[in-house]
Write a structure and sequence with these properties.
By secondary structure, this protein is mainly beta. It is built from no helices and 9 strands.
């Protein structure tokens, strides 16, 4: 059984026991979170409009962190203009406990 969930403006395909990194959530490690389900697949498929009624994915927060550094460079020719800046996107790591519905 699998499900498509939406969180942080993105969609993820999840299965029980799967780990995933989502946009940062303001939750403590060890807390549980219920994610809205867009689609449930398996032996019987259910598609939501926009969400599947009565279906939810229960996940546990493992921790928080920062992703790999992305380097942003700006350059304009002939005017000695150069800028270099980095960014690390914060994330929350979840483990899917169960899919209900």
């Amino acid at each position: 059984m699998f499900a498509i969930v939406k969180t942080g403006g993105k969609q993820y395909r999840v299965e029980p026991g799967a780990k995933l990194r989502v946009e940062k959530l303001d939750l403590e490690p060890g807390a549980t979170v219920e994610l809205p389900v867009l689609l449930v697949g398996g032996e019987k498929t259910a598609v939501g409009a926009p969400f599947v009624e009565g279906a939810k994915v229960v996940a546990e927060v493992l921790g928080h962190g920062k992703g790999k550094k992305v380097v942003i460079s700006k350059f304009k020719a002939k005017v000695q203009y150069r800028r270099k800046r980095g960014h690390r996107q914060p994330y929350t790591e979840l483990i899917v406990k169960e899919i209900q519905g």
